# Entry
Amino acid sequence: QVQLVQSGGEVKKPGASVKVSCKASGYTFTNYGIAWVRQAPGRGLEWMGYISAYNGNTHYAQTLQGRLTMTTDASTGTAYMELRSLRSDDTAIYYCARDSPFSDYWGQGTLVTVSS
Amino acid sequence: DIQMTQSPSTLSASVGDRVTITCRASQTIGNWLAWYQQKPGKAPKLLIYKASNLASGVPSRFSGSGSGTEFTLTVSSLQPDDFASYYCQEFNTDSRTFGQGTKVEIK
# Structure
């Protein structure tokens, strides 16, 4: 069965970086992309971007351009999302999802807290 | 980027009610629309893809319709498990914008 398992919660100070992993299993990793979506406390879903696990092509939300990098490691079936120059409004649950291009399978979410 | 506008933002309903949520796109997206359900503390769950296709395992009381710029998600007879938030998402473009969400509450 398809599973996406994310790394654990993180607490970071403003200005720091965070890198969240998403390990996929149960399907051919390079046949799909991985999307990243975040949700601030009490807010809706915000699409951050996606990466093709086939060729590494990425598309990032304009609001995050310059701070966001998505990568994949096909040898381990793992996707990574790195967000830099963290601010308090980056506090959110970060989800990875298989990109089909709709998001048919989701990780459990990773809480990233940005606080001084 | 395409803007996706859902209405209503909140909906109060009773078990057994027929419920409809609308999602409007700021420009035509064909049928490239998905609907998700999210319960508190849980990841979203895919309900509908390509506007009207039921995802695997989703009860048949859920249905989706529409094309172009206007779409609807209908629950034919609301069940206790259906009280949740619902989001539409376009996947016509690389930006994959979500609607702002609709919370379905118990009346």
